[in-house]
Amino acid sequence: MLKSSGRPKAAVIPPLIKRNIALFALSQSFTGAGMSFAFGLGPLMVIALTGSATMTGLSVGLIGLSRFLISYPIGKITDTYGRKPGILFGLVLALVGAVMVGLSVRLHSFALLFVGMLVFGMGMNATQQLRVAATDMFPPHMRAQALGYIALGSMVSLLLSPLVISAAEAVAPGLGQDPLGLPWLLLPVLIVSGMILISFVHPDPKEIGMHLERYYPDFIPLPLPPEGQRSSFSARTMLRILPIRLAIISNCAAQGNMSIVMVLTSLVLKHHGYSLGAIAFSHMFHSAGMFGFTIPLGKLADRFGRGQVMFPGVATALAGAALVAFTEKFLTVTVGTFLVGLGWAAANVAATAMIADHAETAQRGRAIGVNESFAGATSVLIALVTGPLIQGFGLAAAGWVAVLVAMPPLLITLVVKVRDHLAGRAAGAGIAGTP
């Protein structure tokens, strides 16, 4: 592991890099639509196939589990063979999983839905290596904003998703299809479109990352050890680096906080008598917070530092969770869910950039994969806890957990700052007392 340095004098993005990042963002706008299906249609499909609401959180839990299972292995693949092969492999998995999920409704098979959702989730989470590819193609002081460009593609996919679902709902009766299953059978068209766009990316972003000085003439890379002396990747060694630990903890805190609030927003608004339309409108603001401001947040992280965006992001998510859980007005709940999305975006972009800064290009896929695995494990744990927590202790209890989940990185940062301050004072006193 290393800390990258070398800041070009002019922030000029080469045309080839602009082209590649545009292809990645456009691909994400097509392929990302399926994740909305998993969160929006998944619970309804579980009810349709089981006749019970007991397991409605299963689809969300499977997406988290798939993230945990695939993130490190796909990082290993992209570090070994390049970013494009790994991303395309993920899209193939997503395509197969989407077809399985769509057929599960027609065949009325819960087992097929379970396996299909897991395979689809593994594929979609494998495509998160798009973010690794983005960091490969930019020097350190531009990496966070590069992540913002990819996230902007996710914003477009959120607008595309309801159009596909509405179209499927309109034509399903005439085709003799179930409106819940047909969107999944249409999804491969979008996935294949995304695969075609990815195929036009060249050279492979990993190759660009290993030779950034060819594309940014003023960039001065850190010297690497001779080939025979380079250490192999070790997650344990990686986790010994304090900034990486803080980045992973912050990302997990924001992910856990958001996982609870995504459930709480609907339940709180329904509890206070708001319509489904109002609930959907509130969720739209949450999604806008997640993806609408990623480029300016990335630029702030590049200019002022990762921690200056990451930790305020976690604090923002904490404040948003409190508004969702402990207020009753539609406006305050909606502002709260927007702040949670915004805080998650800030923490996620800055944390990913921080990890990329400390990883060699040849190890970056696995480094960010470790971060994604921790986030996936957090999502699974939250999915298992939230339902029973609400059932046994009410909405407020889940709200308190959402707030508490966001606190660890803030407390750790406070302890580190106090420790460094005291160490500095002690050093100063020692110097002053030297004769």
Provide a short characterization of the protein structure:
The chain is mostly helical and 435 residues long. The protein has helices at 15-31, 33-40, 42-50, 58-81, 83-106, 110-126, 129-136, 143-175, 182-199, 205-209, 235-239, 242-271, 276-291, 294-304, 307-326, 330-357, 361-393, 395-405, 407-432.
CATH class of the largest domain: Mainly Alpha
| Computed CA radius of gyration, to the nearest angstrom | 22 Å
Count the helices. How many? 19
Can you give the helix content as a percent range?
A: over 70%
DSSP summary, beta strand count? 0
Corresponding CATH superfamily of the largest domain: MFS general substrate transporter like domains
How many domain modules?
2
Overall body shape? globular
Give me the strand/helix succession: HHHHHHHHHHHHHHHHHHH
CATH architecture of the largest domain: Up-down Bundle
% residues in beta strands = under 5%
Overall mean pLDDT score? 87
| Largest sheet, strands/sense/barrel | none
Tell me the CATH topology of the largest domain: Growth Hormone, Chain: A
Low-confidence stretches: 4-10
Cα(first) to Cα(last) distance is 41 Å
Q: Give me the secondary-structure category.
A: mainly alpha
Could you characterize the architecture of this molecule?
- This protein has 435 residues and is mainly alpha-helical.
- It folds into two domains: 11-211, MFS general substrate transporter like domains (Growth Hormone, Chain: A), CATH 1.20.1250.20; 236-430, Growth Hormone, Chain: A (Up-down Bundle), CATH 1.20.1250.
- It contains 19 helices and no strands.
- The protein has helices spanning 15-31, 33-40, 42-50, 58-81, 83-106, 110-126, 129-136, 143-175, 182-199, 205-209, 235-239, 242-271, 276-291, 294-304, 307-326, 330-357, 361-393, 395-405, 407-432.
- Helix 5 (83-106) runs antiparallel to helix 9 (182-199) and helix 8 (143-175) packs antiparallel against helix 14.
- The longest helix has 33 residues, at 143-175.
